[in-house]
Amino acid sequence: MLKKSHYDYSTLLKKGPATDLKICTGENVCCTKNIEDEIIQNSEKLFKAQLEDKILVLRHLINTNLNSFRTYFYNSLNVCHERLDTLFGRTYGPFYQSNSQIFDTFFNRLRAFSSPFSDSKVPQITSKLFEDMFVIMFQLMNPMHSVTSVQRRCLLEAMPEIAPFGDVPEKVTHHLEKPLVFWKHFVSGLDNMYNVLDGFMNVPESRRLPRTKAYLNPEMIRWAHG
């Protein structure tokens, strides 16, 4: 059996109790310290290679699905934006078309919201949309008057009391917030998992897999015990 092994057995001792061995222990062993060290090194290399292969496959799978989910999210927002733009364009004509940039900004903020680095809130995004709409409506009803920054601030301060849109802002926020927050957490979770796996691959080997009996291949342990 030993002649079929690639380990150097020329210095093997006679079978007897192990005194300086950590893995090949027992009353009747045929290993030397050098052979045991070589077994440990080979076992670690094999374990690391298999583990890294699994991590690479898992990381690729997560990244592929993460990109698919993000693409689906952005495409869904684009479809909503296009349909809303078409509907408002037909309904309000040039009044909407000349001020459609506020909806462009609104959807851009929703896209940015999905980023794990964004600290914006859905109520803030929808509130900003209706504030901009309120100011534009005031300008349309007073075409000869240009709203200054001070007057804009005054309009927004009076907006809760005037309630120009009724309970529509609250309803829009209610319907948007829960699915968008759930979606953001889901995508952020996948993103964090990918980063953890990516970080693991960059950990120095000395810190990633210390020498320990747990990483030895059972077949090599059995061989070491004769």
UniProtKB/TrEMBL annotation:
UniProt membrane topology term: Lipid-anchor; GPI-anchor
Main location: membrane
Keyword DNA-binding recorded: no
Gene Ontology biological process terms, A to Z: cell migration; positive regulation of canonical Wnt signaling pathway; regulation of protein localization to membrane
Protein's cellular compartments: Cell membrane
Keywords carried by this UniProt record: Cell membrane, Glycoprotein, GPI-anchor, Heparan sulfate, Lipoprotein, Membrane, Proteoglycan, Signal
The organism's place on the tree of life at top rank: Eukaryota
GO cellular component terms, semicolon-separated: cell surface; extracellular region; plasma membrane; side of membrane
Annotated family: Belongs to the glypican family.
The protein's name in its UniProt record: Glypican
Upper lineage: Eukaryota, Metazoa, Ecdysozoa, Nematoda, Chromadorea
